[in-house]
Amino acid sequence: MIIEVNGEKRQLDQPQVLAEAITHWGYQCALIAVAHNDEFVPRSRYAATPLQDGDRLEIVAPMQGG
Amino acid sequence: MTTPNWEIGGRALGSRLLLGTARYPSLAVLQQAIQASGAAIVTVSLRRESASGRAGSQFWSLIKEMGVQVLPNTAGCKTVKEALTTAEMAREVFETAWLKLEVIGDDYTLQPHPFLLVEAAEELCRRGFEVFPYTTEDLVVAERLIQAGCKILMPWGAPIGSGQGLNNPYALRTLRARYPEISLIVDAGIGKPSHALQAMEMGYDGVLVNTAVARATDPVQMGRAFGLAVAAGRLAYLAGAMLAQDMAEPSTPVTGTPFWHSSPQEPTK
């Protein structure tokens, strides 16, 4: 299935929850926050958020800002 | 400048300067500029993170190390939904309920969208955020933001990054006069320390600066200059400025001056 991550299409072989996908893509050690289909997902919900084909994820991290 | 003398968002801070962290030549210069400015609050943001890149983590470690209060922004948001989701993500990552709320209504001037800003502020106040709304100098929008629950307002001086200073001093003075109990911070458009000083002399509670420091030839020295200007402006406000008048009034006592005349003289040839 295809998941759009930060505007780029990514392949996921099997249905999985957000926590697994984050690890699969190598984000597990990073300080990040996630929005799933434009909705904020708290860290505590990663393991309970199933991903479906066509879902959109925003994965963000701290950055300089004004 | 380190003695806490300013109560904002439930915290006591030692400086009324808020410093943006973007556009510096390097992280080292950013760190030195923050230190030199004495700023106790710095703004931060969120950006898309690639799985391989860890650009944000080095920056964030540096900021945490410095022990300054962070104020996350919702820069780039154009809808209420985007602003709310970004706010929630920022609260989790930065572990603070403080939020500089930006909802932009025009790409060229980056002017805040007044209606969407009010709508987003209402919801974020309800969700327990300490909302610092980036707004225009409009009095009625300010009123609506206060009704929404904001205790802090951040009117622009001029468009973000323009360095024009205070484009509408009359409206900024009006806001100060109308809302003596609200914390007012001039955000955006400040180009020189004199602009910051002008805002502080008007009785503004603080000033937020980014580009003017980051893009100075020497950001560290400019950071220091802004810190001094903000402190000087605050002192001047507290001290109470004299009233301006059209005609001169001799500062040196007149009585007993050599060649003294009791009435104004015609110019001599």
From TrEMBL, chain A:
Record-linked CDD domains: Ubl_ThiS (cd00565)
InterPro entries found in the cross-reference section: Beta-grasp_dom_sf, Mopterin_synth/thiamin_S_b, Thi_S, ThiS/MoaD-like
Superkingdom as given in the UniProt entry: Bacteria
One matching Pfam family: ThiS
Protein name: Thiamine biosynthesis protein ThiS
Organism from which the protein derives: Candidatus Contendobacter odensis Run_B_J11
From TrEMBL, chain B:
Residues in Thiazole synthase ThiG domain copies: 7-253
Key words, A-Z: Cytoplasm, Schiff base, Thiamine biosynthesis, Transferase
Role, per record: Catalyzes the rearrangement of 1-deoxy-D-xylulose 5-phosphate (DXP) to produce the thiazole phosphate moiety of thiamine. Sulfur is provided by the thiocarboxylate moiety of the carrier protein ThiS. In vitro, sulfur can be provided by H(2)S.
Subunit details: Homotetramer. Forms heterodimers with either ThiH or ThiS.
Organism: Candidatus Contendobacter odensis Run_B_J11
Subcellular location: Cytoplasm
Active site: K100
Domain of life: Bacteria
Homology family: Belongs to the ThiG family.
UniProt pathway: Cofactor biosynthesis; thiamine diphosphate biosynthesis
CDD domains from the UniProt entry: ThiG
Record field: catalytic activity: [ThiS sulfur-carrier protein]-C-terminal-Gly-aminoethanethioate + 2-iminoacetate + 1-deoxy-D-xylulose 5-phosphate = [ThiS sulfur-carrier protein]-C-terminal Gly-Gly + 2-[(2R,5Z)-2-carboxy-4-methylthiazol-5(2H)-ylidene]ethyl phosphate + 2 H2O + H(+)
Binding-site residues, 1-deoxy-D-xylulose 5-phosphate: G161, A188, G189, N210, T211
Record-given protein name: Thiazole synthase
